[in-house]
Design a protein that fits this description.
Layout lengths: L22 E7 L13 E6 L1 E6 L9 E6 L17 E7 L10 E9 L7 E7 L5 E8 L16 E5 L10 E8 L9 H32 L4 H25 L6
Parallel strand pairs: 3-6, 7-10
Antiparallel strand pairs: 1-2, 3-4, 5-6, 7-8, 9-10
Helix pairs in contact: 1-2
């Protein structure tokens, strides 16, 4: 209270303003005049103060930030530096911060999980000794393929694969490996037919010779050495023919 003032004197300066916690000075009512115009009483006005809080949310790693003592219309405090857990990316605040203070506010950081990039895929092809495909598999880059069932090859033993199929980094073809000897191929049909024809010719020759010798002996009552040799050759032909057919019927050289 300042007394003894006259009209036109300068209005005394206001005292230092202090208030209770949670309240902020909002000015005087009425607004003080520059000079004394008469008795005047100026009453301090107060508004409740507000706070703005930024929370890290479920996957943030920064500390909560609280700014208090704010009044309506004050600029909303700037958000803190944002850090989060590995595998999560900041997706904004909830709710969206206002430009100015409108009351107490808490803004919570939102997070989205980081979607891993799609894996590069490689094609692994398992083939047999003759190039026949046994299996084709799509394998993630850096992973391992799974071999098919061990293939079979007549007269050979499967001993493994020609290369490793672990830690695949590109398309790969893996070939089956064997040891052993192959079964000799069966005789050609032409060879079989030739043997059969020769045997038949010898047999016919032997039969005809035997008949001729028999007739000659009956008529001349004696054996000629030349005819005897021819007869022997014919008999050999008959034996060869019979043996050939016998072996062939048993699944031998000439089936």
């Amino acid at each position: 209270v300042t007394s003894g003032l006259s009209i036109g004197d300068a209005t005394p300066q206001a005292p230092t303003v202090t208030g209770e916690d949670g309240w902020v000075f909002a000015g005087w009512s009425p607004v003080p005049t520059a000079t004394v115009t008469g008795n005047a009483t100026y009453v301090a006005q107060w508004n409740t103060t507000y706070s703005v809080t930024y929370q890290p949310g479920t996957h943030g790693t920064f500390a909560p930030q609280v700014t208090s003592g704010l009044g309506i219309g004050d600029a909303t405090p700037q958000a803190p530096a944002i850090t989060g857990e590995d595998g999560w990316v900041f997706a904004g605040w909830s709710p969206v911060p206002t430009a100015t203070v409108t009351g107490n506010a808490t803004y919570v950081a939102q997070w989205n999980i980081v979607t891993p990039p799609p894996l590069d895929m490689c094609t692994v092809t398992f083939v047999d000794w003759d190039g026949r495909i046994l299996k084709t598999e799509q394998v993630a880059h850096g992973s391992s393929a799974t071999a098919p069932t061990n293939p079979l090859r007549s007269s050979y033993t499967f001993i493994g694969w020609d290369k490793s199929f672990d830690n695949i980094t590109s398309d790969l073809t893996v070939t089956a490996l064997y040891n052993g000897e192959a079964t000799p191929p069966p005789p050609l049909a032409e060879e079989k037919d030739t043997w059969a024809l020769l045997s038949l010719i010898l047999a016919i020759t032997g039969v005809l010779t035997a008949i001729a010798v028999s007739v000659y002996v009956l008529m001349r009552r004696k054996l000629n050495p030349m005819l005897l040799a021819v007869m022997a050759l014919g008999i050999v032909g008959i034996i060869v023919f019979l043996l050939t057919q016998s072996v062939g019927s048993c699944g031998g050289l000439l089936p």
